[in-house]
Design a protein that fits this description.
alpha/beta, Metallo-beta-lactamase, Chain A, six-stranded mixed beta sheet, 14 strands
């Protein structure tokens, strides 16, 4: 059974700095018929649990702590027993949504998560948020970029705890150094590739977002 990537889109809201916006989120499931890992348990624990089915859920990985990426994580964890993993630098964002619940364990740069015979390496990519991470799965030719890199540029840096020069450095040093044919599976919207995005770095820097 070869590992595969499954894709679910869930809908809800994102709230920060006193504003609330309607959003559609990409939920990524990596695994085979026996076990899997969920990246960003967004909005709908029932839909994600249905997609997981009777497989063993190895972990629920949060690419960052914004509420639209972690709102369904505790409920999914309670249903499946899977640990919720978050980089500690985003705990303050997690606490805005879940003040009485702690993530199960911390993510660290360079950490390896394994599921269905595939390794995913944690890349700490601050900028969109201090504890933002991407997950690189070389065997699958993909990187799960959360809200760090999208088709057309970096994730947003206009709100609290974000910083544009920092996200540019993360993208330049941690993502654009990956093989050009690496598929970038994003937190929202369409996927892209490293090769398609890399030529535009100077444009993003010039426009400032």
């Amino acid at each position: 059974m070869a590992a595969r990537v499954e894709h679910l889109v869930t809908s809800g809201t994102f709230s920060l700095d006193g504003g609330t916006w309607e959003v559609d989120n990409n939920v990524w499931i990596v695994g085979d018929d026996a076990e899997c890992l969920v990246i960003d348990a967004a909005h709908d624990a029932d839909a994600i649990a249905a997609a997981v089915g009777d497989r063993r859920l190895v972990a629920i990985v949060s690419t960052h702590g914004h509420d639209d990426h972690v709102d369904a994580a505790p409920a999914l964890s309670a249903r499946t027993g899977a640990p919720v993993l978050l980089h500690p630098d985003d705990l303050m964002l997690w606490k805005q949504k879940h003040p009485d619940i702690e993530p199960t364990a911390e993510l660290a740069d360079g950490q390896t998560l394994s599921v269905a015979g595939v390794d995913l390496t944690v890349l700490h990519t601050p900028g969109h948020s201090p504890g933002a991470v991407c997950l690189h799965a070389p065997a699958l030719g993909t990187v799960f970029s959360g809200d760090t890199l999208f088709q057309g540029g970096p994730g947003a840096t206009g709100r609290s705890f974000s910083d544009f020069p920092t996200i540019i450095e993360s993208i330049r040093e941690r993502l654009l150094t990956l093989p050009p044919d690496t598929v970038v599976r994003t937190g929202h919207g369409d996927s892209t590739t490293i090769g398609d995005e890399a030529p535009h770095l100077d444009e993003w820097i010039a426009r400032g977002h």
